[in-house]
Amino acid sequence: MQPNEWFFIGIFFIVALILPAVPIVLAQLLNPKRPSKIKRQTYECGIETVGDAWVQFKVQYYLYALIFLIFDIEMLFLFPWAVAYNQLGLFALIAMAGFVGILGVALIYAWRKGALEWL
Fold it and tell me: Where exactly are the transmembrane stretches of this chain (predicted)?
């Protein structure tokens, strides 16, 4: 009797759930539990915290990060397309030009809104 193809997919999902769960459970069971006041203090790069540790950051930092991620993900789409460029047809060229065009419009929008100006 040959196993069904869903059997292997089920085994894959079970292994995918067990592999990360085992180290987490083992760490919880085996770690030493000796909490103290010093261990609960906020630690940042070896420098003692001065004032409140919850500081509000500028939204602009997040905008830079999001714009970076957008263009980083664009590279994930462009690289395989560029590698297989000789085997693709005109439709793939037009589709990628549309994709890059949409991202270009987004970049111009962010630029005009002043999201790229460092203050």
Answer: 6-30, 61-82, 88-111
Reduce the DSSP state of residue 115 to 3 states and report it.
coil
Asked whether the beta carbons of 78 and 110 are under 8 A apart, the reply is: no
> Which contacts of 29-37 are long-range, i.e. CB under 8 A and separated by 24 or more positions?
none
Contact 60, 115 (CB under 8 A): yes
CA angle (18 as vertex; 17, 19 as ends), nearest 5? 100
pTM over 0.90: no
Strand partners, 44: 47
**What's the pLDDT tens digit per position in 68-96?**
888 888 888 888 888 888 888 888 889 88
Cβ-based neighbours of 63, under 8 Å, separated by 6 or more: 110, 115
Identify the helix (H) or strand (E) that includes residue 55. Answer: none
What amino acid occupies position 68? F
What CATH architecture applies to the domain 5-113? Answer: Up-down Bundle (1.20)
